[in-house]
Every structure is written in C-alpha cells, then in structure tokens.
Design a protein that fits this description.
8 strands, 3 domains, globular, eight-stranded mixed beta sheet, alpha/beta, Rossmann fold, 12 helices
Amino acid sequence: MCPKNRFRRRGLGVVVWSLVTVLVVAAGLVGVVLWQNSYDMNEQRVTIRHGGHTLNGVLATPRDGRDRHGLIVYVHGDGPVDATHDDGYKPLWEANAEAGYASLSWDKPGVAGAPGDWLDQSMDDRADEAAAAIAWARTRPDIDGDRIGLWGASQAGWVLPKIAARTPVSFVVAVSPAVNWLRQGRYNLLAELRAEGASAARIKAEVAKSDTTRQLLDRHATFEEYVKAVRGDTDGMTADRWGFISRNYTADATRDLRALRGVPVLLALAGHDVNVDTADTERTYRSVLDAGGELRVRHYPEATHSLLKQSVERSDLKITLTALFAPRSLFADGFLDDQRRFLDGLDRAGTVASPRPGR
C-alpha cells in the first residue's frame, strides 16, 4: 500500500474519533443540563378567573402520593415576570415540594401572552389578584385551604400585607421586601452610584434630578412634563412606566404590616442588597411584628437582592453556566434549606416551631 494512503486513512481515523469524542462529550453535557434542570415535582398549567380578567398560572405539586397539600402563592417583584420567573422559581418550588407544599404562580398581565398590562396595576390591584388566586385554590380538592401562605420578593413587600388583610393566610416568606417606595428609591440610587465609584459632582446631580422627579410626582405631572423637566434625559423612563410609578410611589408597608401580626413570617435579607435598605426593612418588621413572636429573620451575608450568590450574579458567564449545570447553587448557601425548614415547622394551625439560631 502507498504510504500516502496509509497516512490519509490514519488522518481520517483521527478526525472520526475526534468527532465521536466531541459528540459524546456534548451528549454528556446535554444530559447533565437536562438532569440538573429536572425537578422532583409535577407542574401543570392552570387558568384562574379574576373578575373579567384571566390569570395564566403554573401549579407545582409534590410527588409524595398525598391527596392534599398546603400551598405557597408567589407574588412577583418588579418588572415583566412570567409564572416561573424564567425557571428561576423552580429550585424554590422543589424545596417547597420536599416540605409537602404546592406552589402557585402566574404570568404578570401582559407577559408571556397573558391579557392586560402589569404597568396599569396598583399594589392594591396586585393584592386583589392574589386574593382571587387564593380563593380559586381553596376550591380545589388537592389543596388544603387551611394551609395557604405567601412568598414574595422586593416590590411584593407592599403587596403581601395587603393580601393578608383581604384573606386569611397561614404564613409568609418575605425575600428582600421593600417598605417605603421613596426611601427605597433614594437608597437604591445612592447605593448604585457608590458601587460605580461616582464622583461627588455626579452624585449631587443625580440626587437633584431625583428630587425634581419627586416634586413632579407630588403635583401629578404628566409624562410630557417629566420629559421637559429632565430635558429629555429620561434614563429609559417610558410613559407607561411613569404612569405605574405615579400610581404607586407613595407605597409604604408600615401600617399594612399589622395585618401580619400573629402570622409566622420568615424574613430573608441579603448582605449585598443595593435595591433595598435591609436595615430599614428589618427595623420596620421588628417594630411591627416582633410583639407577636412569629417573626423569623435570616441574613445571607454573601447574597444579592435576589438572594443569589454575589460571586455568581456579578459574572454573566458564571450565572449562565450555573443556571445550566447547577441551578440550585444559584441561591445563597442555606436559603433553600432555611425555607424548607420553615415550612417543615408549620403545622395545620399555622404555628411555627422554634428554628435554629440565626446567623
């Protein structure tokens, strides 16, 4: 045989085996992704009627063989959030399922094809929506109507106590909840500027712009007046967003929190939260709820506002790879376990067993 042909066949064999190796590795990676993103629970799409509106939801239930389960109703934070929060809720739902609880969430109006527009809502509208979802859940034979609680993050801090004032709830998990809209906005502005290393002059200018915006809101200015006042520097503000802020900027949960007195509340706070002043939140929750003895506060020093690990969230590559290959590891150490333990401690009467000491 010609040496050239032998080399050609040998080269072809190397290419074939290299391709096979690549395909095997790729198949293995795909398998890992599918395995890591499969959760031990059943999910079904549900439709909830709320007045003349329709909520497109997802109900996730445990695979424990029981006929009835307690339920956690999810209340989203700000923004166009779908029912699963782009699958970000699923590790939380799995932890709930391990504790014997189902989870219910829905697309915000106008998101993922849902009718309506979430920017048209007030915090009271959102509370009415959640109360309707709870009423719907109580009609289901697979849900224990005496064990229905709430889970909410960030902007949900203004909605959770309003829901509890409308319908009985057995417990609440509050994640980085806001208390006062204006105080939160100023805290967020300054925290982000400092994180960026902004100069004193820029901070002064941004604060002045923020003060102008507050004055415009107080006199119910139109979006066009806002655009004129900031000389076209809207920083992404739209007419619809301006309307949403105008309806809600006076929100303050302090008085509403009284509806949660006597209700077991797990308050989860992050150590690297540039959105919400966690010290202010904890101080307010303790002043209103501590007397009832049902408030449990947990601190996660290495977490961001979303209770994700800071080391992961600050890198687009890390957050993408972690979401693909280890989505449960996105969250701060101990958060999923603490949520599960909190639920494990709940009995049918809604009381909670004494948890381990806080960090």
